[in-house]
């Protein structure tokens, strides 16, 4: 299953009240570690995670990259009411991601 990919403008313009909790996965298309992390997220989603995950190419997200000081990719940002509460850079295992997104 593929996650919904957003542009920075789409994310900035939507209502944050739509999702109390959500996660935004930042990646770059040529990053091998990002592809592996995305595959682990897909498996976690198939297992039934509670938090919706969407993706964003960090190359086209300069405002969020700067505002949230995202240091590298892959980066999974956990959000509550549209505000970041946790930045996860190490995607260790499917099990870790599953627990994180419950």
UniProtKB/TrEMBL annotation:
Gene3D superfamilies: Glutaredoxin. This is Thioredoxin. InterPro entries: Thioredoxin-like_sf, Thioredoxin_domain. Residues 4-97 form the Thioredoxin domain. It comes from Paenibacillus montanisoli. CDD domains: TRX_family.
């Amino acid at each position: 299953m593929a996650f919904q990919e957003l542009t920075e403008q789409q994310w900035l313009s939507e209502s944050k009240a739509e999702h109390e909790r959500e996660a935004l996965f930042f990646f770059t298309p040529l990053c091998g570690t990002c592809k592996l992390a995305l595959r682990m997220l897909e498996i976690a989603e198939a297992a039934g995670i509670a938090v919706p995950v969407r993706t964003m190419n960090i190359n086209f997200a300069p405002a969020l990259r700067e505002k949230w000081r995202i240091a590298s990719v892959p980066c999974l940002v956990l959000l509550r009411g549209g505000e970041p509460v946790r930045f996860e850079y190490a995607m260790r295992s499917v099990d870790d991601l599953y627990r994180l997104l419950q």
